[in-house]
Amino acid sequence: PLFELVEGEGEREVVRPIFSIADILGAVMGIGKRGIEIKRFKGLGEMNPKELFETTMNPTKRKLLRIELTDAVEAEAMFTRLMGDEVEPRRQFIEDNALNVRHLDV
C-alpha cells in the first residue's frame, strides 16, 4: 500500500492498508477521527517484516508485472540522473519536464 491508517495505540491499535490517495477519505470517514495516524511508505525498508509480507510479498495479494528493458545504457543514464549523487542533473530534468507530468506521487 501507499499508506497505512493507524487507529488507536498499543494493544488497541488497528492498522488498515490504504492503496490510493482516493481511499484515504473513505477510510477516515468510515472510522471517524479518533486517534488516527496516516503513514506513507516511501520504500520497502520502512516496513517491518509483517507489513512487508502483508502488503508486498504475500502471493495471494501481490501483483507481478513484467518489465522489459530495451536500452540498458539509456536506462542506466536516466537512473543515474534521477537517483544519483549529483543534484544539478536531477534539478534540470525536473525543470525541463515539470509541465509534462501526468502521474505524480507526492
Task: Report on this structure.
The chain has 106 residues and is of the alpha+beta class. It folds into two domains: 3-57, no CATH class; 66-99, no CATH class. 41% of the residues lie in helices and 14% in strands. It has four helices and three strands. It has helices at residues 21-31, 49-57, 72-83, 87-97; strands at residues 3-7, 14-18, 36-40. The chain has a three-stranded antiparallel beta sheet, with helices on one face. The longest helix has 12 residues, at 72-83. It is elongated, with a radius of gyration of 18 Å. The two termini are 14 Å apart.
Descriptors for this entry?
elongated; 41% helix; 4 helices; alpha+beta; 3-stranded antiparallel beta sheet; 106 residues; 3 strands; 2 domains
Strand content: 5-15%
Decide which structural class fits the backbone: alpha+beta
Number of helical segments with 4 or more residues: 4
Low-pLDDT ranges: none
End-to-end separation in angstroms reads 14 Å
What would a concise description of this structure say?
It contains four helices and three strands.
Helix and strand topology:
Layout: E1 3-7, E2 14-18, H1 21-31, E3 36-40, H2 49-57, H3 72-83, H4 87-97
Antiparallel strand pairs: 1-2, 1-3
